[in-house]
Amino acid sequence: MGFLVGLVLGIAAGVALIVGFARAENSRAARRRQLAATIASFSKMTIEDSRKLLPADLYPSWVVFSTQQKLKWLNQELIKIWPFVNAAASELIKTSVEPVLEQYRPIILASLKFSKLTLGTVAPQFTGVSIIENDESGIVMELEMNWDANPSIILDVKTRLGVSLPIQVKDIGFTGVFRLIFKPLVDQLPCFGAVCFSLRKKKKLDFRLKVIGGEISAIPGISDALEDTIKNAIEDSITWPVRKVIPIIPGDYSDLELKPVGTLEVKLVQARDLTNKDLIGKSDPFAIVYVRPLPDKMKRSKTINNDLNPIWNEHFEFIVEDADTQTVTVKIYDDDGIQESELIGCAQVTLKDLQPGKVKDVWLKLVKDLEIQRDRKDRGQVHLELLYCPFDMKEETPNPFRQQFSMTSLERTMTSMENGSGSNGFNRLSSRKKKEIIMRGVLSVTVISGEDLPAMDMNGKSDPYVVLSLKKSKTKYKTRVVSESLNPVWNQTFDFVVEDGLHDMLMLEVYDHDTFSRDYMGRCILTLTKVLIEEDYKDSFKLEGAKSGKLNLHLKWSPQPIFRDSREEDSLRFR
């Protein structure tokens, strides 16, 4: 009997413990869910919600909520410390900008220096703030600034004729975005090792030049030359990606300084349907291409006279310092001789949109102003090929613009040349300083078919054939005529001996065959960049100058490079 009673009591106690434990777990789970819901609610709280929970008078005076309040506080503090900032910044600007002014000094001037530089009594006003990057490595902040300044800036200008001119820079109006970088983060006050600052974006820069005691307009050319010099000095000294590094805590901050990170190869291929700027005849277009708008870093193409569909096929190379923010810009102008060239249109590509090591072939619509994209006028298009190669990238894909040959391979190739000319050729080659690769080889073009070609005959059909040629060669080939077809199939292969693949172009013109004449249907213009890299590919190409139609092609490349000195006409062939 006692055994049964003990058994029942034990079971009851066990069940009670289990039920109690289950209830405790359920209660804890409920509290956790409630806490998670509370935290989620707090994370979704707005500034107005927080103000309802806690009155503003209970917050410290330095705690502000809205961006406008932050900016108001920041501007008030800047006004208080502006006299000290003025003294420090004036000396910093003078020491850093003066050498750049001398670098871009106009040829008509003998010297250009500051005789006085203070930023005045009016502090700039910050109108916007944003955090671009915030991680363990550092903080990147951007501040939008508006400054209607009253500085005292006097330039000591001496002309080649020995005339000394004190020129005052007045009425400065500036709007732009400054970038501040606080890196690296450290465990001692002020918690960062150095500060980098740079002018990230220049929205507006206006100023006026005045000769003290006279008029600058009395000396022709001085005003425009000085304005260009000042703008170039600002661009070269503090405009991003250039940055000034100010150490706060002693240490090595060379990793924060501006360094090249890669190269950008730009092939300016052609433009089409350009706006005509001339009253008589057609425009004479040329292009300016740049990554940084500095005189010594901008490239100019040749001028194509009297042509609204110019073909340049010119190659330029640029140094890239920040692939995430830099862009490549192309501007097309009409060359008016001794008069100022007139802008036809411009276009821009962001480098971060390029895949490293891959050629990007793009047609860009030209606009009047890169800052104002609401341009509905048709100004034409420009065709570019772009290749970005970071310095730290493994060269899995060959860069046709920068072929590298080791000295061992070169020597071995030269030694193997017939008639014992290898060693002499190698000695001549190694003594040269400026060399380039000529991509010589055989280009095989298979014209496979055409699709949706325009109808040129009364019966709604055409009798198409294709004429193939290289821009730098007189060799031409022609396919057979396919009668009464808008989707002809040719499957014909033609071989071209190409002397300089980097600078040549393949042109395919489609015609409609008639008994006594022919009608032009459209054309395809191809650079050889892609086939130089891939050596074998198939693709479809839209007909230019036609409402519809495309050609299906198969291209193959059999290379035979040549090493040539660009200053000499002779060349050495690699066999």
Automatic annotation (TrEMBL):
GO molecular function annotation: lipid binding; metal ion binding
Q: What does this protein do?
A: May be involved in membrane trafficking.
Q: Which residues form the SMP-LTD domain?
A: 67-249
Tell me the lineage of the source organism.
Eukaryota, Viridiplantae, Streptophyta, Embryophyta, Tracheophyta
> What positions does the domain C2 occupy?
243-364, 423-541
Q: Where in the cell is it found?
A: Membrane
> Is Ligase one of the keywords?
no
- Keyword annotations for this protein? Calcium, Lipid transport, Lipid-binding, Membrane, Metal-binding, Repeat, Transmembrane, Transmembrane helix, Transport
Q: What processes in GO biological process is this protein linked to? A: lipid transport
The entry's protein name is Synaptotagmin-5
State one Pfam family annotation.
Answer: SMP_LBD
Ranges in a coiled coil: none
Say yes or no: keyword Transport present: yes
> What's the protein's topology in the membrane?
Single-pass membrane protein
* Main localisation: membrane
Which SMART domains has this protein been placed in? C2
InterPro entries assigned to the protein according to its UniProt record, in alphabetical order? C2_dom (IPR000008), C2_domain_sf (IPR035892), SMP_LBD (IPR031468), Synaptotagmin_plant (IPR045050), Synaptotagmin_SMP (IPR039010)
The species this protein belongs to is: Oryza sativa subsp. indica
What GO cellular component is one of the record's annotations?
endoplasmic reticulum
Tell me the protein family, please.
Answer: Belongs to the synaptotagmin family.
